[in-house]
Design a protein that fits this description.
The complex is a heterodimer. By secondary structure, chain A is an all-alpha fold. In chain A, 87% of the residues lie in helices and 0% in strands. Chain A has one domain. Chain A is built from ten helices and no strands. The chains are: A mainly alpha, B alpha/beta.
Chain lengths: 227, 224
C-alpha cells in the first residue's frame, strides 16, 4: 500500500462526505443556525448594557459553539451506519484511524468551520473588541477541532444503539469542559487586555492530545459498536 | 448461459486473481447471543474454487456467522484463519482479499451510481481491466449512472453493491443474501459472477434462501 494511494483514498473519503452533506442540505445547517440564534438573542434578553455584554460575551459564544457542536455530533456516524457504509469502512485495508480522521475532518469542515466564520459577526453584537475577536477566531479554530475529535469518540460508542441525544451529551460534556474553560478564558483575557497566550497554548496541547489519541479511540469504539 | 454471454463474462472479470494458494479455515466457531447459543462447533476448510452456502431458518445466525468470518464480530470461541494466520492478527492483508456484500448495500443514497463506485475505486485493491461505465453496464445500470441512488429501486441498489465484486481483486467473497430484491436476470447475474469467480480460483461464501444457479464442483453447505 503506497502513501500515494492512501492519501488519494483519504481525499476521496473527505470529498464524498462533503458531497453527501451538501446534497442533504437542511441537517447540515442546523448547528450553525442554532449557534446564530442562541448567540444573537442573548443581547436582547440581557439588555443593552455594553460592559456587561463584553463581560459575558466570550462565555456566551463558547457555550453556544459547544452546544452547536454537540447538536451536529449525532449524525456523524449514524448515516454511514444505516446504509452499511461503516461496515465497508471497517473492512477496508487502509488503517481505520486514518479513515476516521478524514471523516472527523469533513465533519469539522461542515459543522465546526462555519461557526468560526460567523463568530466574529456575532462577537460584534456582544461588544467584543477587534483585537479580542482575532484571539477568539484562533481559539475557536483550535477548540472546535478538539471538540469534533473528542465528540466523535462518544458518537462512535453510541452509533447503532439508537441512544444518541441525552446519553451522548452526558458522555461527551465532561470532556468538553476543559476546552470550554480555556477557550472562554483566552477570549476573556483578551477583552481585558491581560496576557492570553497561556490559554491558547493549553488549547493547543488539548488539540495535540486529541489528535493523537482520538482516532485510535474512535476506531476501537466503532469496532465495538458494530460487534 | 450461451457462449456469447460466457465470453462477455470472461471479459468482465479480472483474470488476475492470483492462483497462489489461499485457504480459509473456520475452526470450532461458536456464537452466543443474548444468552442463547446460536451455533457451535462449526468447522470448515475452503480452498481455491470452493463455495460454501450457509443455510438455516430466520434467526439461526447466518448473518452473524458471515460477520464473524469477515472479522466484524468476535465469536464466543474458535478462530478464523486466512492462509494459516488468524484474521484478527493480520487484518490488513485479509481485508485486501475480502469483498463483503452485506445486508445493507453500503452505498450512499445522496450520490449517483458512478460517484458511489468512484469512492469504491479509491478504496479497493483495484482491478483496472474495466472502467466504471463498463462495470455499470455489466450490472445493468448504465442508463441510470447519473441518477441519484435515492431514486433507484432496492434491486437496483443491490446491483450497485454487487458491482463492488467486479471492482476488487479479492479472492474471498462473502455475500449476505446477494439476490435479495433482484429480478430473474439478477439471479442469473449473481450466479454467473460467483461461478466465474470460483472458476478462476476464488472462494465464495454466501447466504441465500433461493437457489442460485452456480456451476461448481466444490459446492458445500452448512446448515445452522
Amino acid at each position: 500500500m503506497s502513501a500515494n494511494r492512501l492519501s488519494r483514498a483519504l481525499a476521496a473519503q473527505l470529498k464524498r462526505d462533503l458531497k453527501v452533506a451538501y446534497r442533504g442540505k437542511s441537517s447540515v445547517l442546523n448547528p450553525i443556525v442554532f449557534f446564530i440564534i442562541v448567540t444573537s438573542i442573548f443581547p436582547m434578553g440581557i439588555g443593552p448594557v455594553p460592559p456587561l455584554l463584553t463581560l459575558i460575551g466570550p462565555g456566551v459564544i463558547w457555550v453556544s459553539a459547544l452546544l452547536a457542536t454537540l447538536l451536529a455530533l449525532e449524525g456523524l456516524f449514524q448515516g454511514d451506519h444505516d446504509d452499511g457504509y461503516l461496515e465497508q469502512l471497517l473492512l477496508s485495508h487502509y488503517p481505520l484511524p486514518l479513515l476516521v480522521l478524514a471523516k472527523v475532518g469533513s465533519h469539522w469542515l461542515i459543522s465546526g468551520l462555519p461557526l468560526v466564520i460567523v463568530a466574529p459577526i456575532l462577537a460584534l453584537l456582544l461588544n467584543i473588541d477587534l483585537s479580542a475577536i482575532c484571539v477568539m477566531i484562533l481559539a475557536l479554530l483550535i477548540g472546535t477541532l478538539t471538540l469534533s475529535l473528542v465528540g466523535a469518540v462518544g458518537a462512535a460508542l453510541l452509533v447503532g444503539t439508537g441512544k444518541g441525544g441525552l446519553l451522548l451529551s452526558l458522555l461527551v460534556l465532561p470532556l468538553y469542559v476543559p476546552v470550554l474553560i480555556f477557550g472562554a478564558s483566552a477570549v476573556g483575557s483578551a477583552t481585558k487586555g491581560i496576557p492570553f497566550l497561556g490559554e491558547l497554548y493549553a488549547l493547543g496541547a488539548l488539540l495535540a492530545l486529541a489528535l493523537t489519541f482520538a482516532p485510535i479511540a474512535i476506531s476501537a469504539a466503532l469496532r465495538a459498536s458494530l460487534d | 448461459m450461451n457462449s456469447k454471454e460466457q465470453r462477455d463474462l470472461e471479459n468482465t472479470l479480472p483474470d488476475e486473481i492470483s492462483r497462489d494458494d489461499c485457504k480459509l479455515e473456520l475452526i470450532n466457531i461458536s456464537c452466543i447471543k443474548a444468552e442463547c447459543e446460536l451455533f457451535s462447533s462449526i468447522d470448515a476448510e475452503l480452498q481455491p474454487g470452493d463455495n460454501l452456502q450457509i443455510e438455516g431458518i430466520n434467526g439461526s445466525g447466518k448473518t452473524t456467522l458471515l460477520r464473524i468470518i469477515c472479522g466484524l464480530t468476535f465469536p464466543e470461541s474458535g478462530e478464523i484463519r486466512w492462509n494459516g494466520a488468524s484474521i484478527h492478527k493480520d487484518r490488513q492483508s485479509y481485508n485486501e482479499d475480502l469483498v463483503y456484500v452485506g445486508h445493507a448495500h453500503g452505498i450512499k443514497p445522496q450520490l449517483t451510481p458512478i460517484e458511489n463506485l468512484k469512492i469504491e475505486q479509491e478504496f479497493s485493491t483495484m482491478d483496472d481491466s474495466m472502467t466504471i461505465e463498463e462495470i455499470l453496464d455489466r450490472v445493468g445500470l448504465f442508463q441510470f449512472r447519473d441518477h441519484s441512488c435515492s431514486t433507484l429501486s432496492a434491486g437496483q441498489c443491490r446491483r450497485i453493491a454487487l458491482a463492488r465484486l467486479l471492482m476488487r481483486r479479492g479472492r474471498l467473497w462473502i455475500l449476505d443474501e446477494p439476490c435479495s430484491n433482484l429480478d430473474h436476470s439478477g439471479f442469473d447475474l449473481v450466479g454467473e459472477l460467483i461461478s466465474s469467480h470460483l472458476a478462476r480460483g476464488g472462494i465464495s461464501i454466501f447466504v441465500s434462501h433461493q437457489p442460485i444457479p452456480i456451476s461448481s464442483h466444490h459446492a458445500r453447505a452448512i446448515r445452522l
